[in-house]
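Each record in this resource describes a single protein on a pair of labelled lines. An example record follows, reproduced without changes.
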Amino acid sequence: MIYIEGATPRQEVTLTKWLDTLIELLDLKKYGEVRLHVRVNFDMPKKAGALMHPFKLPDGTISVELNAKHPDKALPGLSHEMVHVAQVLRGDQVVPPRGPSYWKGQPYNLGAVTQKASRDEKFYMGLPWEKEAHEKMYNLATAVATRTGEWRL
């Protein structure tokens, strides 16, 4: 189930095509039903293309926000965040509502990591979950754009 919020009708069609293609390319259906809430956000910081809330809501939904101020960054940003969705669905990244988060079974403090990563790009790029997302995002975005004929939101 995909719920899209804040998009124009044309953007909703584009996002649906992109998400269906990313779900297929990342083979996410093997983990069961993929429940996504995608919000097109006009209030995000300029730098960010997208943002994922790395936890599942009680009904299993994962939330992703796209930066509406930068339509050219939307597909690479969404591709990046969908790699994080895959990490959550396969159990590599676990972020409970309280307590420590886990990456491949190793605990970490999400708040401290996020705070340091926001100030230190080298630290951010060295985080294993970010390395994977950055390594895959442009190839995924190119494959999605090629299949759907849509690059810009």
